[in-house]
Amino acid sequence: MILPIIAYGDPVLRKVGVDIDKDYPNLGELIDNMRETMVNAQGVGLAAPQIGKAIRLFIINATPFSEDEELEENEREFLSNFDKVFINAKILKEEGDEWAFNEGCLSIPDIREDVFREEKVTIEYLDENFEKHVDVIDGIAARIVQHEYDHIEGVLFTDKISSLKKRLLKKKLENITKGIVKADYRMKFPMLKRK
């Protein structure tokens, strides 16, 4: 089932997610719905807060990047198989040179900005079968992991841009909270909630 994506301004996007266990209600169905929602919105990642759940769960499918001719062949090949579920994730280390990449977010449509992040992460997480993994990830995949991880920490990519850029985007961000934005997928806007 395709779920509405929570728009910028909703308090759930600012909550630090709580850990879950394998008894979390309908977890398999939730993951399937998140995948369907992400694909429908043409995203490469989706975190539970973006569908209104303040839990430590996010999914990534980076295969669209595998067709990017600007990337080296080995990175494209890695991205073609980078389809993962991250439960109760914890970034253990971020390292390497910071580099800029133009990021966007399904919860913040029509806004893209360069964000600086370190090039490599070490992350500990559980997969959908609750098997523990510790992965070292770099390049575009690391960036996607960092972006989605930020969501379960209550952080948005717009928090990582300069105060000048934030001021320039203020009106656009306010409009998103009011539902004055065009997105090609279902969204739920905080200012449109019924009293």
Automatic annotation (TrEMBL):
Fe cation binds at C105, H147, H151. It comes from the Bacteria. The lineage of its organism: Bacteria, Pseudomonadati, Bacteroidota, Flavobacteriia, Flavobacteriales. Belongs to the polypeptide deformylase family. The keyword Iron applies. SUPFAM superfamilies: Peptide deformylase. One of its GO terms (biological process) is translation. The keyword Metal-binding applies. One of its GO terms (molecular function) is metal ion binding. Its EC number is 3.5.1.88. The active site is at E148. Its cofactor is Fe(2+). This is Peptide deformylase. It holds the Pfam family Pep_deformylase. It catalyses: N-terminal N-formyl-L-methionyl-[peptide] + H2O = N-terminal L-methionyl-[peptide] + formate. Removes the formyl group from the N-terminal Met of newly synthesized proteins. Requires at least a dipeptide for an efficient rate of reaction. N-terminal L-methionine is a prerequisite for activity but the enzyme has broad specificity at other positions. Keywords: Hydrolase, Iron, Metal-binding, Protein biosynthesis. Binds 1 Fe(2+) ion. NCBIfam families: pept_deformyl, PRK00150.1-3.
